[in-house]
Amino acid sequence: MKATSLVAAGLVAVRDLRLAFRKPSQVIQPLMFFMIVATLFPLTLTPEMSRLRDAAPGVLWIGALLSSLLALEFLFRDDAVDGTLEQFALSGQSLTWMLFAKTCTHWLLTGLPLALSAPIAAAALGVPMEAMVGVVASLMLGSFAMSLVGAIGAGLTLGARRGGVLLSLLTLPLAVPILIFGARATQLAISGGDMAPPMYLLGAIAVLGVTLAPLAAAAAVRIGLE
Amino acid sequence: MLTVQDVHLWRGDRHVLRGVSFDAQPGKCVLLTGKNGAGKTTLIRAIAGLLDPEEGQVFWRGAPARNQRDEFHSELAYLGHEPPLKGDLTARENLQYSIGIRRPVSALEIDAALVRTGAKAFSDRATRMLSAGQKRRVALAGVLLANAVLWLLDEPTTNLDADGQQLVRDLISEQLARDGIVVAAVHHSLALPAEQLMPLELAQP
Description:
The complex is a heterodimer. By secondary structure, chain A is mainly alpha-helical. Chain A has helices spanning 5-22, 25-44, 49-81, 84-89, 95-109, 111-124, 132-156, 163-191, 196-224. The longest helix of chain A has 33 residues, at 49-81. Chain B is of the alpha/beta class. Chain B has six helices and nine strands. Chain B has helices at residues 40-48, 69-74, 91-100, 107-116, 132-145, 162-177; strands spanning 2-11, 14-24, 29-33, 55-60, 63-64, 76-79, 150-154, 181-185, 197-201. In chain B, strand 4 (55-60) and strand 5 (63-64) form a beta hairpin. Classes of the chains: A mainly alpha, B alpha/beta. Chains A and B meet through helix 1 and helix 4 of A and helix 2 and helix 3 of B.
């Protein structure tokens, strides 16, 4: 009897979670990077709260984008090196579902902790408490979209030497809309405006990512395995 | 049943496979020999579908393998140069996940396979602590558990001691007795009955 694609995807996710708990450095590193960038910024800017607050969306989102690029390098790399991706591709199961599971787990381990810890960095930038829910929500949605978009780049750069630089170059243009709408949503959350329009757009990008990115990532990984 | 028809494959500007053809029926072991760089690994990867030949095709049960990829792959077990194991997981956990994505597998079945390949004693240790030969034994347990008709083995005896090499021969014999097909790239003879063997020497490109 063959396992279903969903069972296979679930097992891939459980396996990745277990591996992350055994080797937490890959999870902690991008989070530390984000926290250091976001908390060092106030030291270099004017201590005036209103000025800091104006800079907050940019600082938080650029920190999140760079941190997510750092984390994306690890998305498929280890599995490619030890032959696990080959076994996935030859398992008779849908590679698309398995890579989607990997991408979701990757977001759970990197994007979600980043979004949840953002209030600490945001507080250092003078963001009022009532805006925190909006900041966290926008970063959650944005980081999820970035993980999906980044999975395509991570798949395409599997076989490349110095894949990290190439991955950034490939992913950045696709990540710019997420950066623009995400920073706008955060800005509106801070100023107390209606953040729904940019959130809808971020949601639309995430839905597009869920629909297309795993298919593209699977095709890219198959090419990368050659 | 497994038919490789006039396969040509280039790696960069090297014409590695120059019209390789064979037809392997159940109970047969295709023994790929040839010097380093002759294309043994390339041919095995091309049969598995990891590489796309520029010319020629691989047929499985009479139909092109690429047109029935998932069905073909669910009947295939592939063991490459490196055992596909996660260093931070134990041998048992590795098999639980790698076989679990193919089919439901019980702890008893995993135990039985580990006993068969002599890997039971170290099955609860993280695989990064194991020697290359021990890892290979765990990977062989994975091949057994896949319940596949077609085995593609790339240098299966690498890093194995004399007992381990005998184990590989026994496992291949049992697979052939079950009417399975084995394609193995080897440097040494596998000492199987001549009627089961289909030697195929690949020439240096």
